[in-house]
Input
Amino acid sequence: LPCRRLLRGRKERHPGPRPTRSGPPAFSGTGRASWVRVFPSRHPLSLSAALETKSGQVIASTASRHTSQEFVRFAQEVVATQPSDKEIHLIVDNLSAHKTKLVDRFLADHPKVSLHYTPTYSSWLNQVENWFSKVQRHVIARGVFESVAVLRRKLTRYIKAYNTTATPLRW
Output
């Protein structure tokens, strides 16, 4: 049955801190300067996002871990932003964190929330993947982040800016 509000997606990305620049720039065959990059440390950052297909706006949050507790916390954020009488459909990948007893309890407590799993190797069916692609191109690619906190701030700033001009995705 069609719903008036359909939220798509719940996907995590682990961009982690970007490397720092070191040494003079090296020139690639394309003529653009490129920096040699050195990773100072490995501290992952999980980015979760839900796309509201009607408006194109994104509800997103970051977390330091990739667990079912973080997933339920994010799902609670999504539920809190929606009217209580609306159905919410979250389309997720087949990650084990989406299939725990904690998630089952959350779904039992929120009967208007449904999870739908994308088939393996079919993440392109999920519209939020297009948004993650924009994040990759506009924030993460060629970015230099001194720490996870800097990356988190830049992602938050991008999300706020994106939502001011968001439009629905046209297939």
Summary: Residues 1-14, 23-41 have pLDDT under 50 and may be disordered.
